Amino acid sequence: MLTIVHITYHDETNIGSCPIGQTGGFENADGNGEIHCFRIFDGVSVMLMQLEMGSYTEIRTQVGVLEVNFCINGRFETSFSMRSHVLLKPGDMAISCYDGLHGTKSESHFPLGYYEGLCLEIDPAAAGHWIRLNAPAFPTDFTALKQNLLGSKWYMVGPAGPRCEHVFRELYESASYAERGFLQLKVLELMLLGRIPQERAADPYCSAEQTALAHHLRDHLLTNREGYVSLAQLAAEHAISVSHLQKLFKQTYGMPVYHYIKEYRLEQAAVELVRSRKPITEIAQHAGYDNTSKFSESFKKRYGKTPSRYRADKTNAVKRSIETKTE
């Protein structure tokens, strides 16, 4: 099967689509998708991504470029070539600055088969020059910004926080139709928020062996929908204690076992609401809820709206996007 990721550049000089492999960012992918690129100002571009695939291999080549990824929907897991594994779920952001050594190659996976997100790429030299000339009220020291966000590391992942998440979602929803000035202000706003001192989270990296075991435990719990499997049973099968199992899982996925399973199934339900016409009762059952009202309650707590409203809003957003493209 020919794998195609259509990449559309929205600026005055380059509007078109490219098959996978011509951009150097996607290799060995096993699905399809769309990426829309918008140049906000010199040195800053935003990519809106909608991918339907299980995995791909990314090769990094641009040294010194600051890259910020924000997860809108789906789930994004990445394993780097050097002792590292990270997980991105809705509301999380990942910040990286390729140094020519770490993370040259990464293996990325989408366990839900779907990913929707935003990627902000910043060339500090070009962006800094544009800001000094056109937005002097927003002076940005990119060296200090990088130090605040990354410290001594080249990669950081964690919750974006309510203020940053709000701006990311505004960018994602309005990039295709908003005035350039509005988008520029949103990017500058994110840079200002990036100056806020960041809490240093625990090191998210895990060994390959720990990651493989945590993956196995997760897959076992996710696929065993018919019968109940206790953590004690899983721990005994792998000759480890329950406390070690729980610690290992939380270290890899950032949350307790059953909280992860609940969140994962709600995210899977959100994807099915958008991508399928299945009745909500069927989606609720697939998510592990026998009671549709309980499912609706949990879904609203997670996404801020009922399943039916979520489906309707997403459908209307797609219609608006299509209408904008045809104008």
Number of strands: 11
Instruction: List SSEs in N-to-C order.
Output: EEEEEEEEEEHHEHHHHHHHHH
Counting helices, strands and paired strands, the structural category is: alpha+beta
Amount of beta strand: 15-25%
The biggest beta sheet reads: 7 strands, mixed
Enumerate the strands of the largest sheet in spatial order, edge to edge or round the barrel.
1-2-3-10-5-8-11
Share of helical residues: 40-55%
Low-confidence stretches: 13-24, 197-204
The overall average pLDDT, rounded, is 79
What is the gyration radius calculated from CA atoms? Answer: 21 Å
Oligomer: single chain
Distance between the termini: 33 Å
Net shape: globular
Number of helices: 11
Topology (SSEs and partners):
Elements (H helix, E strand, L loop, with lengths): L4 E6 L21 E10 L2 E9 L2 E5 L6 E9 L1 E5 L3 E5 L3 E6 L7 E5 L5 E8 L1 H11 L7 H9 L4 E5 L2 H13 L5 H14 L14 H16 L7 H7 L4 H12 L3 H19 L4 H7 L5 H12 L3 H20 L1
Helix pairs in contact: 3-4, 5-7, 6-7, 8-9
Task: Explain how this protein is built.
The protein has eleven helices and eleven strands. By secondary structure, it is α+β, with helices and mostly antiparallel strands. Strands 1-2-3-10-5-8-11 form a seven-stranded mixed beta sheet. The radius of gyration is 21 Å and the shape is globular. The two termini are 33 Å apart. About 6% of the residues have low confidence.
Short structural description:
The protein has 11 helices and 11 strands.
Please describe the structure with a list of short key phrases separated by commas or semicolons.
seven-stranded mixed sheet; 327 residues; single chain; alpha+beta; 11 helices
